[in-house]
Design a protein that fits this description.
By secondary structure, this protein is of the alpha/beta class. The protein is built from 15 helices and 8 strands. An 8-stranded parallel β-barrel has the order 1-2-3-4-5-6-7-8, surrounded by 5 helices.
Length: about 325
């Protein structure tokens, strides 16, 4: 007992010193997790969306470990890896996600939530109804999938179903029924949580309020534009992303600086806001970031430099 008191006094003095440095350290019994340490969502993007905040990130096609390590500590919320116009390199994607594991962040936070979520965009369009790539992406450990060329609610619904496991009889959110096959070993390892806990988190938000997967639809065609409202209304759609509007301008038959394109973007934004779905766009300079955030866009794809400049301008 005397030895215990000596050890406890030593630990208490150490905790006091750490607290003086502004660090919170909670000592708890084994197998107990502090509610202060664990966020509601492991996906940092969903943590922000659930609080009504916009989120910011970058696009990359560089799957190197060096790029992964750099982005893991960047002051962004997400990175999306573009495999639409490049190789569908799942081995490289797996290597990149491994490179994004940052032990320093885990130790600092006291939980497995990364600072930066990893999403990816793949080659198949919605009209191709390809399902296999979703399973591959999620089993690697991605926290979101960006679906190209979603033209109607039926395609959006299939995308959502591909991201969900078949629901148990006791599920509070059984519909739409899931189609994802079960083999989450790599995902469980990357997320850093037990398999049972992964099952609880591996569902689409906001359909499941506890979900940590984001289903992101891209509207890129005139048909998709016509159906923007019904696409945004599909249960499980977490965001709609228009990017820079390059494909959409092609389908509309206008230049990218034409008023018709901006009108189309605003139509999609209105559909998102009507159904409380995050709407995403590319903004590559301070003026564009400020404009789009003020309009209500929640997902901003930008560059680190432009984002830092915008943050500095807001802080002034």
């Amino acid at each position: 007992m005397k030895l215990f008191r000596v050890i406890w006094k030593s630990v208490d003095r150490l905790a006091t010193r750490i607290a003086a440095l502004g660090v919170t350290w909670i000592i708890m019994p084994a197998n107990t997790v502090s509610a202060q340490q664990v966020p509601k969502h492991l996906n940092p993007v969903i943590e922000k969306l659930a609080a009504g905040k916009p989120f910011f990130g970058v696009q990359s096609a560089d799957l190197s470990l060096e790029n992964a390590r750099s982005l893991a500590r960047a002051d962004i919320d997400y990175v999306y890896l573009d495999m639409e116009h490049g190789p569908m390199d799942f081995e490289g994607l797996h290597r990149f996600t491994v490179g994004m594991i940052d032990k320093a962040t885990i130790l600092k936070k006291g939980n497995a939530q990364p600072n930066v979520a990893v999403f990816a965009r793949f080659a198949p369009y919605g009209r191709e109804q390809a399902q296999w790539f979703v399973k591959q992406a999620l089993d690697i450990g991605l926290m979101g999938v960006i679906f190209n060329g979603i033209d109607n609610p039926e395609q959006a619904l299939l995308a959502v179903r591909n991201m969900r496991y078949p629901q148990r009889k006791t599920s509070k959110y059984p519909d739409p029924p899931g189609l994802r096959g079960y083999a989450p070993a790599s995902a469980v390892w990357w997320w850093g949580i037990p398999e049972a806990e992964y099952e609880r988190h591996a569902d689409v938000w906001p359909l499941n309020p506890d979900g940590d997967l984001l289903a992101i639809m891209m509207i890129e065609t005139s048909e998709g534009l016509k159906n923007a409202d019904s696409i945004a209304a599909v249960p499980g759609v977490g965001a709609i992303f228009v990017g820079a509007g390059a494909d959409l301008s092609q389908y509309l038959g206008v230049e990218r600086n034409a008023p018709e394109l901006e009108q189309a973007l605003q139509t999609i934004l209105k559909a998102c806001q009507t159904h409380n779905v995050a709407c995403g766009i590319t903004a590559l300079n301070v003026r564009e970031i400020a404009k789009r955030v003020a309009e209500g866009w929640k997902m901003i794809r930008t560059s680190e430099a432009a984002l830092n400049q915008w943050r500095a301008s807001v802080a002034r």
